[in-house]
Design brief:
The protein is mainly alpha-helical. It has one domain. The protein is about 90% helix and about 0% strand. It contains two helices and no strands. α1 packs antiparallel against α2. The longest helix has about 60 residues. The protein is rod-shaped and about 90 Å long.
Length: about 90
Amino acid sequence: MNTSKLILGVLAVAATGVVIGMLFAPVKGAALRRKIRRESEKRMDDVKERLSGVADDLSQKFEKVKDNVSDYAQKTMNKSEKVKTAESN
């Protein structure tokens, strides 16, 4: 979780730096607004892509844990059945 917070923090700082840099650049208002809009869209696409990667990674980890728990439960049930069978004999 700390890694995702770090990534979002770095992206926020980078975006802020880009906007501040553009505001101090010698460009007309309309051109500056277009440039800010394009940069913002590009940065948002980067953020969405990275968040999608994090979501996929979390999903894979969840599936692995779910499979491990399912395997453990099945092994426990098998052992329990063996004990019951041994006790009834």
